[in-house]
Amino acid sequence: MKNLLVQKYGGTSVGSIDKIKKIAQRIVNIKRSGKHIIVIVSAMGDTTDTLVDLAHQIHSNPPSREMDVLLATGEQISISLLAMAIELLGEKVISLTGPQVGLKTNSTHKRARITDLDDKRVINELKENKIVIVAGFQGIDANDDITTLGRGGSDTSAVAIAAGLNADKCEIYTDVDGVYTADPRIVKDAKKLDRISYDEVLEMASLGAGVLHPRSVELAEKFGIPLVVRSSFHNEDTGTIITTDERMERTEVKGIALDNNIGKISIMEVPDKPGIAYRLFSMLANRNIHLDMIVQNTNRAAVNDISFTVDDDVLQEALEVSQEFAFEVGAQKVEFDKGVAKLSIIGTGIVANPEISSQFFETLYNLGVNIHTISTSETKISVLVDKNLAKNAMISVHKAFGLDQ
Ligand code: ADP
Ligand code: ASP
Ligand code: MG
After folding, report:
1. How far apart are CA 354 and CA 377, in angstroms?
2. Across-strand partners of 105?
């Protein structure tokens, strides 16, 4: 649709009635400047965490389907309140849930993936000159069940809607001024980046920089949606523009990311024969469990240890699958470790530059930080380290690469 802007406001940005009223005024001003506007919102403040906590007071491993029914309520509160605030300012407005905007997903509850967007309803509402407020983070599967897209998933709702309706751009409003060289809450002298490529920011987001949901970046790149991250608290800063790679000649470290929300699973003494890794990883894939940092050590005759990391929210499920696998193939035991974190340096082409990796490892050595696992790709080097040392290491590595300058 022509002249269409999509904006997304995160939890802190709609965290109080006062903030909702301020955002309402900002949205109305944009509408009055002659644009169509769709606004995606998250649940207010810590609502989603509170809901998760309520569920765990009842059930140690709550059924995923019911979890989604519960978590989706958070966003329903904020869309209705924001719509009321806009109505009071005299503009036509309607709030819609994920199912109402036709955001179809698969049935993997708690981390569903978008399969389709049936945009008829939204287009009709926009044609009636309404501001459309949409609940982020939620969709509906083929059984008409409510699903959610994984923590932080409202960003992905926003980009999917921007892509589906061919919006001019998608603006992500949050509680920091943009994408920084590292999480500004941990690294005080982190610097805001004016521009960053989709690939680099995708790598940062996937490696724990919570500022964007990784799927949102993938979708924005795939559909060529210009993405901007900026602060909802003031208008002065233009934020960070995410663009296609400008292929810089110089390889450099663009940012540092830390992921504390992971666990390591190790399966000890797995029989050493063809097909074993395939069996384990297909069992995990069948449950849509994404793994990372896979290591296999051959240390004794005829047996291997296999270890890998997974996100906290699938740790329990991954452990169950690993135990089932261990029993089936006659592995000795399954262990898990919550005391690790993944620290990564990110930048286009860095893995091909030996000076960069050596600088990274030297910095960790000087701090006395032991590296458990290393993994690399074209745009990142990640290490698994003890969680209690990780924040300090992040600050030092940030400095070592001159990102504070
Ligand atoms: P929202 O509720 O608006 O979606 P989030 O908490 O999901 O906000 O994301 C914003 C937060 O991301 C910031 O408050 C910041 O602490 C964190 N963050 C982590 N890494 C980065 C980074 N590299 N740049 C900016 N923010 C980051
Ligand atoms: N409210 C959800 C969460 O806290 C989704 C989001 O904020 O993007 O994870
Ligand atoms: Mg977020």
Report:
1. 13
2. 114
Domain range for 155:
4-175
Task: Pick the ligand that lies closest to the CA of residue 12.
Answer: 1
Ligand 3 ion local residues (Cβ < 5 A): 10, 152
pLDDT in tens, 333-376: 999 999 999 999 999 888 889 999 999 999 999 999 999 999 99
Is residue 401, in this structure, part of any structural domain at all? no
User: What average pLDDT score do residues 158-167 get?
Assistant: 97
Ligand having the closest approach to the CA of 76: 2
Cα(274) to centroid(ligand 1), Å: 43
Query: Is residue 19 within 8 Å of 174, Cβ to Cβ?
Result: no
Determine, yes or no, domain membership for 131: yes
Instruction: Please report where in the chains the tokens 């810590």 appear, as a residue.
Output: 46
What mean pLDDT comes out for the span 170-194? Answer: 97
In a domain, 11, yes or no: yes
Where b means 16+ CB within 10 Å and e means fewer, 234-254 reads eeeeebbbbeeeeeeeebebb
CA dihedral 221, 226, 230, 232 (to 10 degrees): -110
Neighbouring CB atoms inside 10 A of 214's CB total 19
If you measure from the C-alpha of residue 124 to the centroid of ligand 1, how many angstroms do you get, rounded to a whole number?
34
Residue 158 confidence (pLDDT) above 80 = yes
Mean pLDDT of 170-192: 97
Residues 6+ apart with CB under 8 A from 157: 8, 40, 98, 103, 134, 135, 136, 137, 138, 139, 149
Q: Evaluate whether residue 20 is within a structural domain.
A: yes
pLDDT in tens, 209-254: 999 999 999 999 999 999 999 999 888 788 999 988 765 556 789 9
252-302 residue pLDDT tens: 899 999 999 999 999 999 999 899 999 999 999 999 898 899 988 876 778
Cα 227 to ligand 2 centroid, rounded to whole Å:
19
Pocket of ligand 1 (CB under 6 A): 10-13, 42, 152, 174-176, 179-180, 182-185, 204, 209-211, 255
Ligand 3 center to 75 CA (angstroms)? 13
